[in-house]
Each structure stands twice: as structure tokens, then as C-alpha cells.
Write a structure and sequence with these properties.
mainly alpha, 2 domains, 0% strand, elongated
Length: 217
Amino acid sequence: MSRELAKRIAIPAGALLCLSLAVVFALLALDVARSRDAIRTGDVRYRVSPEDDGLWRADDLVPLALAPNMLGVEDDVAFRRAVRALRLARLGDPSASTSDPELAISRNEAQARLEAIVTGDGDLARRSRASGLLGVLGLARFVTETQGREALLSSTIANLQRAIALDPANDEAKHNLELAFQRGGGLELSEAAGGANPAPGGSGAKGAGSGEPGSGY
């Protein structure tokens, strides 16, 4: 192939490549803007209709979730979805039936999402909140379950103590830790679960676990 022919081929090919990249960058910029809007509108929709699917997520034009990754919002969205699952579990609703399969699914989903945040998130404050919410879930189960209560209480206390260790300013976890020991009553706890000397402190946040996405991050 002559140099002249190669040049004739290379010029339009390079132009086509530049045009393709320009289109991709334009779509990516649009995805970034839409992802920002999805967080804000998702928080508003959550307060009105937490059962809605697709909260906090825009339909990406560029695959591989490049826009959310560029914005660094994936961890924020994961936490919001965990809180949403916990809210749909209706922990504070006395009329909710523990035999309701949908509630069981929501509670299992919430636990799995929260555990993933505790073990995989790089933000200590968010890991603390997730661990504290696992404690809230354990407290709710302790009220309704009759089997394995000592193990359940030990796990609940461990989650709350971990929340405090990750963020000593987590007053909600401190309040719930005191509540866990009060509800434990006569159950004997191992030293691993905190023994008789939990780390008290703080007035706590009444109605622990009722926080909404969009606050306290």
C-alpha cells in the first residue's frame, strides 16, 4: 500500500474516531447531569413513595455505570437503598405481621444491603450508621422472635458496639445499645457481646433507624 493511499484511509478513519469520541463524551456529560438530578429527585420521591422502584437511578446512555462512578455516588445510593429496604420492612408498625412474606423479604434485603455496606464501604461514618441500623433490625426481631434470643441479642449488641467504635459520635447507636441491654433483661451475655459493661453515653436519637436518605451522610 502506497503512502498516499494509507494517508487517504487514515484521515477519514481518524475523523470518524474523533467524532465517535465526541459523541461518547457528550452522552457521558448528559449522564452525569442526569445522575445528579436522580439523587435529588429520588430523595423527594422516597419521602412520598418509598415503595417506588428505580429511586436514585437515571437510565444511563453510556454503559458500565460510568457516570455514577465518575460522580462517586454509588456508595451513597447503596446506603439509600438499604434504608429504603429497612423502611419497607415496617419495623415500627405494630400492625405488621411477622409472618408476612413480603416483610420477611424486605428485612432480609435490608440486612444483606447493610452488611455489604459495613464490610465494603470506605466511609467510616456510613459504615457506622449501617452497623447501627443492623442493631435496630436486631432489636425489632428480638421483640417478635422467641427462639435463639441470646444469640440474637449478642449479635445486636455486637453490631451496635461496632457502630460506636467506627464513629464515637453515633449517639443513635449508643441509645440503642442501652436499649438492647434493657431488653436483654435476665439473659446472660458473653464477654464478646459486651458483658455487663456496655459503653453508654449520649441521649440517643429516639426512634432509631427512622432516618431518611438525604440527611446525616
